[in-house]
Amino acid sequence: MNRLFVCLFAVLFLARVSAAEEACASCIDGCACEEICSCNHEPRAPIGVMGDHVHHKGAWMVSYRYMFMNMDGTDSDVSGYMMRPKSMDMQMHMFGAMYTPINNLTIGLMLPYKVNNMDMEMGAMNMPMEMESEGFGDLKLSGTYRVWSSSVHQLLANLALSLPTGSMDEENGVARLPYSMQLGSGSYGLIPGITYTGLANGWGWGVQANGTFYLNENDHDYTLGNRYGLQAWGLRDLCSSSAVSLRLSGNRVENIDGADPQLNPMMTPLADPNLRAGTRLDLLAGIDYRIGPARLALEGGAPIAQELDGPQLETKWMVIGGLQVSF
Length: 327
Prior knowledge:
Shape: globular
CATH superfamily: monomeric porin ompg
Strand order of the largest sheet: 1-2-3-5-6-7-8-10-11-13-14-15
Largest sheet: 12 strands, antiparallel, barrel
CATH architecture: Beta Barrel
Mean pLDDT: 88
Helix content: under 10%
């Protein structure tokens, strides 16, 4: 059923792209035929996508995003462990600023503030236990360069540098918290990507591929696994100020290289660096509203497929909201 839904989404998406291109066949750069192309605003992806556009020279944009993810239940047996995860809520407040020093190049800065809460069971009596961590994560410096554009299409190159500003020393009072509860990576990371977007005839669409590659072993003798992302979206303008969207987002996470000597993988699967990998495909629907220089957007969804390498909590649903202001 999930595969059928994805195929139908892909067919509808490709059909709308083809129709939009045909309707705008006579357009020239700069959207001279605005009434045909509906190029009344810059292409925008759903709020959960970053690095999807550049601004005009000298322009600024500040942004705030709120992200919430709920995980509940494990995908395999955890009865052999002393501490067993039951559910987890992950929140992130993302503060960002972007500036365009020259045409076709926008640079940015993003700083996350994370709040993690996990419910666990301990011992043969299934005693409840809670883990918490809160604080700033890794700072990211980014650049988005417009490689090519026309009246309908644009191709962007993305590159970000992740700085190890988040804590890796979070504890529950007596012992260090497992990997998923830590706030930072402890490593420098490169995040390259490429983004294609289009906007025509009241329809928008795009595809983005990226990866996160950690470059060095941190002070606790491990390196987080590489991450790979591929997503595609379609967007429809309802009027000049609002739009609805549908997005497919696929993500792959690899296992951790090395291990924190203070974490015992025999106690809980969360402390095993070889049980952190997994693949997930999410489907999200969104809506946004634009008024003047401001944009308010909301997106929510759930996985339609996920495969986890070992006993891990399954993602159940997520929501992303954001406010962007340009000046």
